[in-house]
């Protein structure tokens, strides 16, 4: 399955971004083959609706789970409809790499 | 003839000035005057009137599009036309929905849709109420539903209800300098800016002056709570050649009477004098004649 992690910049050394709709980038990690893709958030500076646009993008990208600092009410309502699991992680000092390593070790945050 | 009362900063005294102007204009200038509370997020002008009888109350609506996913081809044209990111479409999930809280009811999506998949449904926006008052022609108040962010739309409807009134209209604007304020002052003939002689009052006054200059609106300033703070606001007015219409001295008793809703009871002589002078100045304006 595909997991999206909100990232401040592109690259595994980037900091985890606590924002969802206004995150800088998304790291899409595929648990099947270990593939990692970074995609820029083109909606991060939208006047409004950044959260809903990003939720839509997650559905388009076939993401099953998102790890972010928090989710706004509009994004949350949509993600629930799309049956995409939201995981809240309150560790803004972590890098994307550290989070992926944790996922690989299947420790605390992967429900599957 | 429309006079709007605005300020950048909240809590400077827009309501105090509006209610008093309404009262004194009706007594000293023209009893054919109406007060319109455009601070639709928390209208409170009505609190200062004795037994304000409701003459009429109207529920107003905004049109929110609904997408019929049976007819929708998920072409996303409506989404491209939407300026507000209010439409979410995921073709592979057969998903097409409008977020009502983001929708500004502009109608672009309906025009964009070639498949007749969009229907516009009325959704309550707020109320517009007419009150009878002991003096003047009465008070009209807009009140936005809790949770809505469509102040501007309600203010537009509110103004349309009083547009044909053949009387002097005082528009009590919401605070700030964003869209709802622009909408309130947009077709006013004259604007009274209320400020206080504090750094905060001056900071926000400057932003509001910039706005009115851009809109090319004639305006003057009333300094409320005079005696507080410093002289910077007066220097700003002088440097920019902005007319000082009057000053209302800071007075604890005044604040007490406001808090108990007694603004129009036992009005102190000096208040009567200040507003008398302000009205004289406004009456002499070319735009007001």
Automatic annotation (TrEMBL), chain A:
Residue ranges that the Swiss-Prot or TrEMBL entry lists as coiled coil: none
Domain Dinitrogenase iron-molybdenum cofactor biosynthesis residues, every copy: 13-104
Pfam family of the protein (one): Nitro_FeMo-Co
Entry superkingdom: Bacteria
InterPro entries the UniProt entry points to: Di-Nase_FeMo-co_biosynth, DiNase_FeMo-co_biosyn_sf
Alphabetical list of Gene3D superfamilies matching this protein: Dinitrogenase iron-molybdenum cofactor biosynthesis domain (3.30.420.130)
Protein name: Predicted Fe-Mo cluster-binding protein, NifX family
Automatic annotation (TrEMBL), chain B:
UniProt xrefs under Pfam families: CbiA, Fer4
Keyword set, alphabetical order: Iron, Iron-sulfur, Metal-binding
Gene Ontology molecular function, alphabetical: iron-sulfur cluster binding; metal ion binding
Domain of life: Bacteria
UniProt-listed Gene3D superfamilies: 3.30.70.20, P-loop containing nucleotide triphosphate hydrolases
Domain 4Fe-4S ferredoxin-type: 63-92, 94-123
UniProt keyword annotation of Iron-sulfur present: yes
PANTHER family referenced in this protein's UniProt entry, alphabetically: 4FE-4S CLUSTER CONTAINING PARA FAMILY ATPASE PROTEIN
Name used for this protein in its record: MinD superfamily P-loop ATPase, contains an inserted ferredoxin domain
Species this protein is from: Tangfeifania diversioriginum
Organismal lineage: Bacteria, Pseudomonadati, Bacteroidota, Bacteroidia, Marinilabiliales
């Amino acid at each position: 399955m595909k997991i999206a992690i909100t990232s401040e910049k592109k690259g595994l050394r980037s900091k985890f971004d606590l924002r969802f709709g206004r995150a800088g980038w998304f790291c899409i990690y595929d648990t099947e083959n270990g593939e990692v893709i970074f995609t820029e958030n083109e909606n991060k500076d939208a006047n409004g609706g950044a959260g809903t646009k990003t939720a839509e993008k997650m559905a388009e990208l076939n993401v099953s789970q998102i790890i972010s600092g928090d989710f706004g009410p509009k994004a949350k309502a949509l993600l629930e409809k799309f049956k995409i699991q939201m995981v809240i992680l309150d560790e803004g000092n972590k890098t994307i790499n550290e989070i992926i390593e944790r996922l690989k070790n299947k420790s605390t945050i992967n429900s599957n | 003839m429309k006079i709007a009362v605005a300020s950048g900063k909240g809590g400077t005294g827009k309501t105090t000035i509006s209610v008093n102007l309404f009262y004194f204009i009706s007594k000293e200038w023209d009893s054919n005057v109406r007060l319109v509370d455009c601070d639709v997020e928390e209208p409170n002008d009505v609190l200062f009137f004795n037994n304000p009888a409701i003459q009429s109350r109207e529920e107003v609506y905004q049109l929110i599009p609904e997408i019929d996913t049976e007819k929708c081809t998920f072409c996303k044209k409506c989404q491209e036309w939407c300026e507000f990111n209010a439409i979410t479409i995921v073709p592979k999930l057969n998903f097409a929905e409008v977020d009502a809280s983001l929708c500004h009811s502009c109608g672009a999506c309906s025009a964009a849709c070639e498949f007749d998949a969009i229907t516009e449904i009325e959704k309550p926006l707020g109320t517009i109420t007419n009150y009878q008052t002991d003096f003047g022609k009465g008070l009209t108040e807009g009140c936005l539903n809790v949770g809505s962010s469509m102040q501007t739309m309600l203010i537009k409807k509110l103004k349309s209800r009083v547009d044909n009134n053949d009387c002097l209209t005082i528009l009590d604007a919401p605070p700030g300098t964003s869209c709802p304020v622009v909408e309130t002052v947009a077709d006013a003939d004259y604007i009274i800016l209320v400020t206080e002689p504090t750094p905060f009052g001056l900071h926000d006054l400057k932003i509001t002056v910039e706005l009115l200059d851009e809109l090319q609106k004639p305006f003057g300033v009333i300094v409320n709570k005079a005696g507080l703070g410093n002289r910077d606001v007066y220097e700003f007015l002088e440097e920019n050649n902005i007319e000082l219409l009057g000053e209302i001295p800071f007075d604890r008793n005044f604040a007490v009477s406001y808090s108990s809703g007694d603004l129009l009871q036992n009005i102190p002589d000096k208040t009567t004098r200040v507003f008398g002078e302000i009205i004289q100045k406004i009456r002499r304006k070319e735009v007001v004649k």
